[in-house]
Write a structure and sequence with these properties.
Rossmann fold, 14 strands, seven-stranded parallel β-sheet, alpha/beta, about 350 residues
């Protein structure tokens, strides 16, 4: 198999050298070029035809976000952002970036775990589905649907379901944007979103979605009571578990450590394993795009307790990893493209 061709884009000569050396440590990759700014990146993307590129955000002349918008319009390819800026990274996702890596982690003798994770993200990005026109169309449809739903009379949903847990990783922010704004202002069931992200990124993610959604969106807090009308984003760097506080109902308990072996903080498995025995058949779980198998153990327990599991179909996943393992294990009650997930979710509630 030919190595994956990577174009490295960064205004710092030191960073270009450091990133290129880390990539070239793996026989699965080859760095075919380096670019020093956005203009250089656009030109070399066209001339060198890389399989993917790593893209810095803060650069002179033409920054990473401006370059990303042009590249996704003219020569769309998988892009992994290298950034330490939370808000700009979220904007990069909206422009079509597949994934991002904290630039600081790649400096100062990164551990083997960090390097391997970097390689895995690049490999996953290489397989990502890139369709800029479809992405733009989906965003326009989302806004139209949100505007229509905001004007609609209240939805009357009668259901025994008490909680929805949505899990996602690579490609998750865009997938969430296709679902979360559709919930009407009177939606009666609280929602917990477990999105793989580094510390510092989930609060801006929650703030961004709070501006887009009819429901209130916030980063989850320790000992917080779970109430309808709210979407809780599991905070990065911690594990989000659910407990039953008797008359107080469901509460969020944030933990640093967990009893299960997992690479992820937050982990979808940890959340599902904590809440499934409490809610049994009154839990609905959705597994969206992402690499790896986080969520598989949790979904098995969800099904053992007669809960419902929905998975995103391969046709719309940026990376068909997490939904695939759940589907292949026979744990998915329904699989659907991202545009239909909300409707399927409602189907299981009414």
């Amino acid at each position: 198999m030919e190595p994956i061709k990577v174009l490295v884009v960064d205004d710092s000569a030191f960073m270009r050298k450091t990133i290129s050396e880390l990539i070239d440590l793996s026989p699965d990759f080859t760095v075919i070029g380096k670019a020093r700014n956005g203009f250089d990146a656009i030109e070399k993307t066209k001339s060198l035809k890389p399989d993917l590129l790593t893209l810095d955000i803060e650069m002179p002349e033409l920054d990473g976000l401006q370059a990303l918008a042009i590249i996704m319009e003219e020569t769309p390819i998988p892009v992994v952002m290298l950034s330490n800026g939370e808000h700009s990274t979220l904007e990069a996702f909206e422009l079509g970036a597949v994934d991002f890596v904290m630039k600081g982690l790649l400096l100062n003798q990164p551990t083997e775990t960090i390097i391997v994770d970097f390689w895995q993200r690049l490999k996953a990005a290489k397989t990502a589905k890139i369709n800029r026109q479809l992405h733009d169309k989906m965003l326009k449809e989302q806004q139209i649907e949100k505007d229509v739903m905001f004007e609609q009379s209240k939805q009357r949903i009668t259901t025994d379901k008490e909680l929805i847990v949505i899990g996602c990783s690579t490609g998750g922010p865009s997938a969430l944007q296709a679902i979360l704004p559709k919930f009407a202002v009177d939606f009666p069931i609280p929602i917990i979103v477990v999105q793989h992200m580094p510390p510092g990124f989930t609060k801006p993610l929650a703030e961004r979605f709070d501006s887009l959604c009819n429901l209130h969106v916030k980063e989850a807090e320790n000992n917080e009571k779970i109430i309808p009308g709210t979407i809780y984003i599991a905070p990065a760097g911690l594990q989000t578990t659910i407990m039953n506080d008797g008359e107080q109902g469901l509460k969020i308990k944030l933990k640093i450590y967990t009893t299960i072996d997992t690479l992820y903080k937050p982990s979808i498995d940890v959340t599902l394993l904590s809440v499934s025995p409490i809610l049994s058949s009154n839990l609905l779980t959705v597994i969206l795009t992402g690499m790896g198998d986080d969520g598989l153990r949790g979904c098995k327990l969800v099904k053992d307790n007669n809960g419902i599991v929905l998975t995103e179909d391969e046709s719309t996943c940026v990376v068909y990893g997490m939904p695939k393992v759940v589907y292949n294990a026979g744990l998915s009650d329904k699989t659907a493209p991202i545009s239909n997930i909300y409707d399927e979710l409602l189907h299981f509630l009414t």
